[in-house]
UniProtKB/TrEMBL annotation:
Pfam families: HET. It comes from the Eukaryota. Residues 51-205 form the Heterokaryon incompatibility domain. InterPro entries: HET, HetReg/Transcr_Mod. This is Heterokaryon incompatibility domain-containing protein.
Amino acid sequence: MVNRAVLYDHLKSSSAQIRLIKLRRHDTNTIGQVSGELATFSLDDPQCPLFTTVSYTWGSAKEYGDEPVKLNGQDKVALKNVLALLRMLCCTSAENFDLAEDWFWIDSICINQDNLSERSSQVKLMGQIYRQAKATIVWLCGGSDDTNTAIELLSHLADRRHELRKDYKKRAKRMPEDLCGHPGWKSLERLLELPWWRRVWTLQEFLLAKELTFYCGAQSISRRVFRKALHSIELCGPLEDYIRKAAWTTAWNRRRLIQWYEQDHNRPKMSLVSLMAFCGDYETTDPRDRIWAMHGLAREEDRHMTGRPTYCYDERTLYTGLVQAFLYKYKSLDIMCFAQLFQSKEDGWPSWIPDWRVSCPPYVVPLMVSQSASDALANFRPVAGSRMGAKKFKRITAYRASGTEEYAVEPVDMFNHLSCRGIVIDSIDGLGGLPSRDERVIIQGTASTSPVNTTPADADHKEEVFDGLVRSLVLNRHDKYLESLAPVPRYRKEFRQLVKFADGGCEPGSLGPACLYKFVGECYVDGMMDGEALGLGREVQDFKIE
């Protein structure tokens, strides 16, 4: 099993081979060089030993430890974060681990990072690796008094969940008096702001592990206790005075996702595109991992659609390929709408291709297409069901402007122009402004003589009506776990965006050979969201989008 001449021998992807590491414990608690052996096994072999996976952050600059690890008699440089974990495991005080029997899978050590082909094949196996592992260790950071305080508060909150749930049923959410001003809140906030929570690969590792334990140095807390603590915190009510929203949302969204997958095994998995949007503000060293880190979590048809993970192409090529594959597989343009969220700042980037390198925080319903009647964007935000008697209807059609017609899309040309068919509903030649000061004086002076004696609404009221309108375009959901105020400033901006022509473009309806459009985003047209436009008798035309 162990090849002492070569640290990284060839892995056979056809038999799902991986490397595992076994460590040797130090005789004392003093820090010494970490040593062990690296061996190859097949995940498909019944003789493959039980192993533990390790989840951690690499660090943006790939910081390396102050000394190498000795594996199979050879020195191997280890990341600073990994070396700290290995030292903890090798100490005699780490009684939770039996190093005489335990094998570990640590990607930065067990994968030859200099072999691009091996990296791609191992990424394909990551879902299987984490599902098959007996447990997962999450290394958040080295321990400190601050992290100890945070973990103690989490354990305390988990123990009080039953009490807090009873209080919640009796009255509205409120923070118990003994927890108000507790010093552990700021420690917990700092714990939830550690880099691990925002790294894109860690989501898969968090969701797929059979058992998972968080470590800050030697102090630990299980995923089960952590989830109970988060529920207790949610029952306490508004958290703005205790934990910053960004820190809380990242942890809570993970709880929401794992609960979705665990509660009903018959539920379909989320689509690849929905997962990418849900993790739109996660960080990644390699932008291609925006796709591949979600690959193992997505539904099977989307994994087939994208093919095997590969690092042979740059991110622009991969993102373009994903959109094209989606268009042709699902006969749907829905994926294009994500380009208004992930809007590229790079010159020459096609307007219809989302640039998933752009950071975009998750929303309850990020787009209208997220509540489309199509299953192409399967997610965990089902439209609230309706009832008639005892019979509950299945999924309600939300928005489907094309009715039952499939989208017609032509192959992308050599200039990355997308041609699709559609109908011009109308054109807008301008937007009216608010009344000027002089107009208001005239209106006020003549109001008493008007047959209908009503005073026009003031500007603030108009803005309130407008805010209500943009909020109303998002339907109500059963998903209370993602309740939050709608991002009205973003919606207002998008609502007022109409259409953008490329340089040298033309007016709608004037579709000459040189007519190019830029895609701005989705659009709500009242009375036209369920295929009504197809019955207007308008000419179906070709639109070329750059």
